[in-house]
Amino acid sequence: MRLFGSLCLVALTGSVLILQGCGRFGSTMGEADHPELWQPHLKAVESKDLASYPKHARAYVPVYSHIYTEGRDSVLNLAETVSVRNTDDSNPIVISSVRYQSSTGKLIREYVPKPVLLDPMATADFVVRLDDTSGGSGASFLVEWQGANSVNPPLIEAIMISTGSGRNLSFVCRSVDLPPTKPGKAKSETVTESKSPAEPEPASQAN
User: Domains in the chain: how many in total?
Assistant: First the structure.
């Protein structure tokens, strides 16, 4: 079976499948946009302290706010969780940006308006609600992090899930590394994007 960079594991009504080819509502300032409010182990990092973390890296995470079931007019909405796990047992990392982008590549929401510290072996979660369909079927997260030059890279995965109505579906996609940007590069402004005519209305969920 061919694998295309990232692995997606699927559980559908007791069956386990392997998906091939997996390579997240407008902005509201609340807990979703400030994960440190409901994850108290995430601590804000001051700008003056960022120089202590010289290694910069980025990761692309494929996610799906809905998937097509029987055709393009029949879709199933999904809740999304992006999990950033510090795999280093000695060194913290700094999560400097977590951007949620639509199928057309437009920025929907910045989850980390200020960098946060992730302790050794700790995990940070970033959640998109089931009823937030702004991302579309080709949504993505762009995660930027930094750390000591010798730090282990984090494990970054996205978990998609839908339950109820006699159908339970979940699958996982892993991130793909991207070249780092230059430190201090300005972030894009948040855009509330109107629906593209090519995207179906996700209200007609499959049962």
Answer: 1
